[in-house]
Design a protein that fits this description.
The chain is α+β, with helices and mostly antiparallel strands. It has 12 helices and 4 strands. Strands 1-2-4-3 form a 4-stranded antiparallel beta sheet. α3 crosses α4 (95-108). Bound molecules: flavin mononucleotide (FMN).
């Protein structure tokens, strides 16, 4: 008996790992099928707005090239018109619906399109659509000086002074600073500019404790975290099977921007993994109001750095271990 057990034991461990992997993938797959936008339900305002930006962004790109193809864009122009009519009919207009209208108007008024029969027809149909955006959409001009305003005098000082801190001052970071950091992070690029992020924030002790009891990496510092965020992604923003990993990418990129935004404002952070089994994710959702179609990417602990801090050195590998120059074959 001992002999058999000795031989099957390693396989049982492997099988258990495989089982957990299977459960994790199945959970993500099920959530994608249930909540993503693959059925293209354009009556749903959220789905339609994500789809609108996908379409109008293609027109924005077309209008942004120095030598644009004068015949391009009409298919997307008609798609936008259809989406605008749906928004109008169901009277559930969102940000991207308004932006879409402005982009379409700009497109049909391009010098090469203005006299086109199609432009006249679209213009006529747009008369019934009353909503407008107050922001600027389409293509914009940007000179080199404007673009290079982002140059840092000492980028090393900025990047190399960020560390994940796990202990903070007791003071809570005020909402104005939290909102400012989120606004800065919203400049993060996202696929077709869909901006599928949703950020949950709390500084309430009870809520923080409830969330953190399902997170595996916050001991022993979790109970003293002043502000806590859940960074999530709206699955409704994803329409194609090929996009089934895109939300992790968009979520990861946003998270990093947010961390750097806080760093630029002098606020310390520590990312907290949400690599939890599906059961933990489900339990959290029973206790905290998180929209079913929002997938949690990670949590973020936030607080003021102490006058004196101790943290992990977390040294970085040498560049040649992670960098390869691709050569011609
Ligand atoms: C997605 C992600 C999840 C993380 N989860 C945890 C965590 O659960 N607990 C923790 O103490 N640190 C966590 N960290 C912080 C890492 O340990 C830390 O970023 C890494 O050691 C590099 O150190 P630095 O951030 O100070 O440069 C996480 C980091 C990332 C990016």
């Amino acid at each position: 008996m001992k002999f058999i057990w000795k031989h099957i034991r390693p396989y049982i461990k492997d099988f258990y790992k495989f089982y957990k992997l299977f459960i994790g993938f199945t959970y993500d797959f099920k959530r994608f099928v249930l909540y993503s936008g693959w059925r293209n339900n354009m009556k749903d305002a959220e789905q339609r707005n994500y789809f609108s930006v996908l379409v109008y962004h293609a027109l924005e790109k077309s209008m942004s090239y120095k030598n644009r193809n004068a015949d391009s864009g009409w298919k997307n122009a008609y798609k936008l018109l259809d989406l605008l009519k749906i928004a109008n009919k169901y009277n559930n207009v969102g940000y991207h619906d308004k932006a879409a209208k402005q982009v379409l108007e700009t497109f049909i008024n391009l010098p090469e399109n203005r006299e086109h029969e199609k432009s006249k027809q679209i213009k006529q149909e747009l008369k019934t659509i009353q909503f407008n955006s107050t922001d600027k959409h389409g293509a914009i001009k940007l000179n080199q000086k404007e673009y290079q305003q982002g140059i840092l005098e000492n980028p090393e000082a900025f990047f190399f002074s960020r560390y994940s801190l796990r202990e903070f001052k007791d003071a809570i970071v005020p909402n104005e600073i939290i909102s400012r950091a989120v606004k800065l992070a919203m400049k993060t690029p996202s696929v077709c500019n869909r901006q599928p992020w949703h950020i949950y924030h709390t500084n309430n002790k009870c809520v923080k404790d409830t969330i953190l009891k399902y997170q595996s990496g916050n001991k022993p510092f979790g109970e003293k975290i002043p502000n806590l965020m859940i960074i999530s992604i709206d699955l409704k923003a994803f329409f194609l099977a090929e996009e089934h990993y895109e939300y992790w990418i968009d979520g990861g990129m946003f998270s990093m921007s947010l961390i750097y935004a806080f760093h630029a404002l002098g606020i310390a952070t520590c990312p907290l993994n949400w690599s939890t089994p599906p059961s933990q994710d489900r339990l959290l959702r029973k206790e905290v109001d998180i929209c079913p179609h929002h997938t949690i990417v990670m949590l973020l602990a936030i607080g003021y750095p102490d006058a004196s801090n101790i943290t992990c050195a977390s040294a970085r590998r040498p560049l040649d271990e992670i960098y390869t120059q691709i050569r011609e074959r």
